[in-house]
Design a protein that fits this description.
Chain lengths: ~140, ~475
């Protein structure tokens, strides 16, 4: 049973699908499940967010707020949930975090708005599959 | 304690900082040269600036891990000064800019930066991006069409090379490839050497040769002020971005002071004014740099490269530099502000637009910020001046109570008085200010006028629900009340 799950998200509608699929997967024993959402802020996002919100404090507060709905969505279904916000290159940071903690499995959404982005960003999920020690589920 | 701080701020991450410093130095060369050309000075002026600023800011700045140097924003402010008065006036302006920035730091004026709204900041970076982009057009004039191919190739390398290797700056790879191409195939295009001299010597300390008169000050002060504000604006924005990327705090006043000292040093050693570099700082943190050592290494390695590679640098084709500047402008432009424009309030979009347009027409980023801030203030005053007044008759029409909702100040008093019916025949008028706030003399004046008018008709007036601050203001300023009490 996968009870301790790390779920990589970028806060987009697309990664919501990964969450829904995970919920489906653990539904029979959902009361034992704990899902940690991990969101990685890269350099470009830092730049955009600071410009958008004025300073680093407001930006990090807004980022947490962004996950309130998702967290309560998961909690309403009887699971424990938390969000972990890290800074750095998405793939490397998620791999490092996943390997430093004991998770039963890691779920990642394969993002991509168009062909080009699928080709480029698909490399993140590829890296996760390759370097994370725990089983990795990629939700297409 | 100092020892611990020294350890922390210099030696806690030696390997990462040295590597990142080297990467930054490599990426600084093309940008410093290109920004010099935008300003209209020899490439050395920008390179000396980046060298001096990197080293001085490493020692005195408030945000370890941030990279400063010659920037596009500053270069764009200098063009007319350089064109009209020449390099020595630019150096004097740079020193004066440094002095003003130190004063900003000493008097802790960084906190006034909060009066610059986000929409103005976004307009500022967008305008900056557009100006950097348009300033590249000159390199395409009177040039064989091959330059489009070379520039296109530069951009292709810059954007595609990171998929093969992320640790070598792709701008540097682009420059090397294009230079080799141009040299080996003997392609006739303009090079850095055509734009100005590149002396392979260390900068020397010298006071700029200008007459020390009021007339000189009158020429350089407006430029220095604009450079001061734009420099601090971009530096503090960069500092906030580095804060966010590294999840650490920084001292913004120390940073302002550091920027000042760095610019004085730059001016004295023949460099142009500079400031925090967003792009380079992001590169630095991404490459693993996070302490003061990274900036120091970047500065030293930059100078080393110039002295060793000076002869090669002059052969870099302008087409490659133009490509890099186009990349810089694309990276600087806040695309999110365009894709998101239908979601933000219309006024914010307009303020952003006005900031951008002002810059494009005046070619001065400082004017754009000023116009944007002024317009924001007016918009805010208009928005907050909306006041709602609801009048209700009581006691069979002998009394009337007005509920006031909103801020009462100079911009809202007219609307407030328009909503009061002075033709009513009443015994008493009650003004309920529970959901209002009196802000200034105009507000008190309006209440006085209201009271006088009604009293003239034999109607008594009562104000209720004033909050503490409004009450104190009323007691201090109201003439009617005072006169009434005296009589």
């Amino acid at each position: 049973m996968y009870t301790n799950i790390l779920l990589a998200t970028d806060g987009s509608a697309h990664s919501k699908r990964a969450i829904e699929e995970t919920l489906k997967m653990v539904d029979p024993y959902k009361n034992h499940v704990r899902i940690d959402l991990i969101y990685v802020v890269d350099g470009e996002t830092s730049k955009e967010d600071v410009l958008k919100y004025g300073d680093s404090h407001t930006a990090s507060m807004k980022r947490k707020e962004k996950f309130f709905d998702t967290l309560s969505f998961i909690e309403e279904r009887g699971m424990k949930a938390d969000v972990i916000i890290q800074h750095g290159e998405p793939a490397e940071t998620i791999i490092e975090y996943a390997n430093a903690h004991e998770y039963d499995c890691v779920v990642a959404g394969s993002r991509g708005k168009n062909k080009l982005q699928t080709w480029m960003l698909g490399s993140v999920s590829h890296k996760l599959v390759k370097y994370i020690q725990a089983p990795v589920i990629v939700v297409k | 304690m100092y020892r611990a701080m020294f350890q922390e701020q210099w030696l806690s991450n030696i390997k990462g900082d040295v590597l990142a410093g080297i990467v930054v130095a490599l990426a600084l060369i093309p940008e410093s040269i290109a920004f010099s050309i935008i300003a209209g000075v020899d490439p050395m002026v920008g390179l000396y600036a980046s060298f001096c600023i990197c080293i001085v800011i490493a020692l005195t700045g408030g945000r370890p891990g941030m990279i400063s140097g010659a920037t596009g924003a500053m270069a764009l402010l200098m063009t007319t000064l350089v064109a009209q008065y020449g390099l020595s006036y630019l150096l004097a302006t740079t020193i004066l800019t440094g002095i003003l920035q130190i004063l900003f730091g000493l008097f802790q004026l960084a906190r006034f930066m909060k009066f610059i709204p986000k929409s103005v900041m976004v307009g500022f970076v967008n305008a900056l991006a557009i100006l950097i982009f348009t300033s590249q057009f000159q390199h395409f004039q009177d040039e064989s069409p091959i330059i489009f191919v070379l520039t296109g190739l530069t951009l292709a390398i810059i954007y595609l090379f990171p998929y093969f290797n992320k640790s070598i700056p792709s701008t540097l790879v682009a420059i090397i490839v294009i230079s080799i191409l141009v040299i080996t195939m003997n392609i006739e295009v303009r090079t850095v050497g055509d734009m100005g001299e590149l002396t392979r010597t260390l900068p020397v300390l010298a006071l700029p040769e200008i007459p020390l008169t009021i007339e000189t000050l009158r020429i350089i002060l407006p430029y220095a002020l604009a450079l001061t504000i734009v420099g601090l604006l971009e530096s503090l924005l960069t500092a906030s971005i580095v804060d966010d990327m590294t999840e650490t705090e920084s001292n913004k006043n120390q940073e302002s002071r550091g920027q000042g000292l760095a610019n004085i040093a730059a001016g004295l050693f023949g460099g142009m004014a500079g400031c925090g570099m967003i792009g380079q700082s992001v590169i630095n943190v991404k490459s693993g740099g996070c302490t003061r050592l990274a900036s120091l290494i970047a500065g030293l390695f930059l100078m080393f490269l110039i002295i060793v590679l000076g002869a090669i640098v002059v052969q870099i084709p302008m087409a490659a530099l133009a490509g890099i500047m186009i990349m810089v402008s694309i990276g600087t432009f806040n695309w999110y502000s365009l894709t998101n424009i239908h979601k933000v309030p219309l006024t914010d979009a307009v303020i952003m637009g006005v900031t951008v347009l002002t810059v494009i027409f005046t070619h001065n980023l400082a004017y754009g910020v000023l116009a944007g801030v002024l317009l924001s203030m007016i918009v805010f005053a208009v928005k907050i001046s909306k006041i709602r007044v609801l009048g209700l008759y009581m006691d069979e029409g002998t009394r009337k109570i007005y509920y006031v909702q909103g801020q009462l100040f100079f911009a809202s008093v007219t609307e407030f008085l328009d909503n009061i019916d002075f033709n009513d025949e009443l015994e008493e008028v009650v003004i309920d200010l529970t959901e209002s706030h009196l802000w200034d003399d105009s507000a008190i004046g309006a209440l006085d006028r209201l009271e006088t008018k009604f009293k003239g008709k034999g109607t008594s007036v009562r104000f209720i629900g004033l909050n503490g601050e409004s009450n104190r203001l009323l007691e201090r300023l109201s003439s009617v009340r005072r006169n009434a009490e005296h009589s």
